[in-house]
Amino acid sequence: MSLDPDVGQLDGADVLVEDGEIVEIGHGLSASNAEEIDASDHIVLPGFVDSHIHLAQTQVRGIAGDWSLMGEYFDHMLGNITGLYQPEDMYLGGLFGAFEKLHTGTTTALDWSYPNTLEHAERAVDALQDAGLRTVYTYGPPGDDSAKWWYESDVGLPEENIRAIHDERISDDDLLGLGLGLRGPDFCVDETARSDLELARDLDAIATVHMGAALWPSSDYGDDYQGFGCLEGMLGPDVNVAHGNHFSQEDVQHAVDAGVSFSSTPEVEMQMGHGIPVTGKVLDAGGRPAWGVDVCSAVSGDMGSQMRIGLQLQRMFDNQEIIEGHEEVGEVSISCRDTLEMATIEGAKALGMDEEIGTLTPGKRADIQLLRTNDFTTAPNHDPVQTVVFQADPSHIDTVLVDGEVVKRDGELTNPLVDEEFDRFVASGERLLDEAGIDA
């Protein structure tokens, strides 16, 4: 299941990978001295792309499931826990967050990081490299002082640290890219918002901006949200909006026309009070959003959940509009293939990586997952797309490759650090919550 319209969906086909690249897809392929992976009774498809997640929260998972955004999350996470992170906490959270991604079929993620110091950022990058996850490491504001960084802030992102991470750790790593986590005009003054975006452009980095969700601290809008504000005139394909729930249809249309991508994290947005996901507005504007998990302190890192929740939520809104017009729902709107592509190629586009990943296409990198279909909960496999979207879960993901390297085989991750670092990972989470005074 290539998700490439020029390649199509092929039964019983082979995928030939050399030096991390997909070189050919077809029937009866052979190559001398090749390692063979038996994919009979499997769906072979691209790895998922998570366009927005905070991986370092992994060791405090299971604490935020009853939190709202503007209540407990801002107070407890951004105002307390993140300031307690030591560099090793960044490493362990990022490492096991990346392991969860790989285990659940995600081969690429945008990791929105809150590094308190340069050393924190360096250990976060160490984690991604040790795990083998393809990542856009996104350097956001430090987590040590929420009042300084999040409430009409006039302090720019730490440029010296960001340049050091880019030049010394990321620029020569084929699996890593750089993003900048912008606060935008919702959280900082206009001059700061613009200068942060200019810094991202100077570094050729993705600029991903938390905007238009809940009632951000520096905003008083409701139905009169002012959209991009001071960033107007600076929009382009290198700008990604995380959430965007309160953007007007006109603002979304303008952004889509300018090439801006939107990352929707439907499960967290439904819980925490962000507002209605932007999905429908982006679709009406002729674009398609990318899915993301967001805060893994609250929800699972499994992208399959976001595909299903985002799909069915948008169908519900579309169906309700028809019903309120006193008509019967004759067909559903967004399709299973749509939501799967939002979890793969649309995520790749949002990260500026669609020439490299997102589909199984000769010439692209071999980021691939194999999903078992001979399980009694997935068989019979009448429609592979619907099987992936609605019947499968992480237990069915048998094999995962990143850049042609097998990182999961026979249902188990191959990295020995899963066992070697597990106790330290658990102890890190326990210490953070104890120091924060939060009962789990």
UniProtKB/TrEMBL annotation:
InterPro entries, per the entry: Amidohydro-rel, Metal-dep_hydrolase_composite, Metal_Hydrolase, MTA/SAH_deaminase
Annotated Amidohydrolase-related domain residues: 43-407
Transmembrane segments annotated in the record for this chain: none
Any one GO molecular function term: hydrolase activity, acting on carbon-nitrogen (but not peptide) bonds
Protein name: Amidohydrolase-related domain-containing protein
Organism: Halosimplex carlsbadense 2-9-1
